[in-house]
# Entry
Amino acid sequence: MRLVTGIVKPFKLDDVKTALESFGVQGMTVSEVQGFGRQRGHTEVYRGAEYTVAFVPKVRIEVLVDDADVADVLEVMAKAAHTGSIGDGKVWSTPVDEVVRVRTGERGVEAL
Amino acid sequence: MEIDSGNTAWVLTSAALVLLMTPGLALFYGGMARSKSVLNMLMMSFSALGIISVLWVLYGYAIAFGATRGGLFGFTGGLLGLDDLAPDTVTAGLPDLAFAGFQLMFAVITVALISGAVADRMKFGSWVVFAALWATLVYFPVAHWVFNFGVLQDDGSFADGTGGWIVQRLGAIDFAGGTAVHINAGAAALALVLVLGKRKGFGREPMRPHNLPLVMLGAGLLWFGWFGFNAGSALGANGTAALALVNTQVATAAALLAWIGTERLRDGHATTLGAASGAVAGLVAITPACAAVKPVGALVIGLVAGGACALAVTLKHRLGYDDSLDVVGVHLVGGLVGTLMIGLVASESVAGRAGLLLGGGGGLLADQAVAAVAVCLYSFVVALLLAFAVKAVMGLRVSEEDEITGIDQTAHAESGYELTGIGAGGSSMLAAAGAATARPSSVEVH
# Structure
């Protein structure tokens, strides 16, 4: 099993969610986060003064998937989040040892 | 003398209107500060309501409106505690107590205005002491210079040598307090922040307003109350009050438009904060001039003030002083614009003297400049000395840790918003589970 994590532009959340649901993903967790990548931050002008905003708002999407689906889920998320401009974000996967469904006690792939 | 009930009713009402400006200012400043400092901003204004009202009754009125000592300050023993002012003590149809109550509100808000410059970082106790000392040594005497017309004689004129030096000897025009209130508070704010120093992160972090609806609510209350401030200064329900009211409205409207227009050109956006600041800049600038110009003159003053103040608020970044909520940029600069522009656009038919652009020569402009510079210099120098004195005796700034944690939590043991569980004592799931850090029941006083 793998945990797929995507950091994407906030306005792309709905597209990514729809694409993942169409693919057949059963659940996901989302959170609002801030950070920067190669784009660094950006500058803003307010009341005549220029400021560097170091951390840009992003959305983090986390999905637990079976090993067999990892490549597809990564592609689905990357495609749905794509705009082609800087700051589109990243998606990656990490190994997951064990998963337990709290209600039933099911383990492993059964719990996904 | 007979009490004029119409005039008295208007002055009493105006006093209540001006009172409301200070809570309005508290909201205006509170919304502009960061969320961790909103309560401290409110408390600086509310503490001014407390301290200055008490001092005014005890001795402030006696200094501002007692028998003059060379036009520089007043003193009449019987006015201590307003002791000699009976309900039937009447001047020109108006009970002296009504006038004393009306003027009390001016003293309160002038002191509260200063607090916008020191957001996030000034020890609350030091603010209280500074406010009391500055009111005593600066506001009360300067109110005497500007607002004390002297002793009224039977023929309706004021006896020579019995009034404040600016209003009587110099003859400068300051109808409702462009010098005594706005230049005065703005100059003191500048002096105080020079001694206090910049906030941590000033110039690097954006430090944007945390609650703009609060700012708009505050600006609305200020605008509303300002009709009492300006039209109430006519001290009567009469044509001068009506002129002041209309001029106040048109100047404020023009300044609002000028500010957001300037911003749109400079920064690309017309902001909510700009609309609120522009309105206040217009209110400030028209304050001294509201009974000295015709409505079109007021419109011009508003336009100039809105544009000038919108540009002036960036000076702090270029010159490196942290006037946090732009007291200098709005009140000092707006006060100077209004006071000096009287010398340009005063109308002889309403002011008795014409400005330079309306054929009156440069005499009035020179008198206005003397009044503006005198108040500015006096307030700045005394505020600077007071700031150094308070710093030496009790310190001015909270510790770096307290400033970063937030002055609401460290100085007042409260937070403006209980929205999150961890560390804020809110009612979230985390707090219910005992994961939130308990708030200390007593907070160390620094």
About this structure: Residues 5-394 of chain B form a domain with the Ammonium transporter fold fold (CATH 1.10.3430.10).
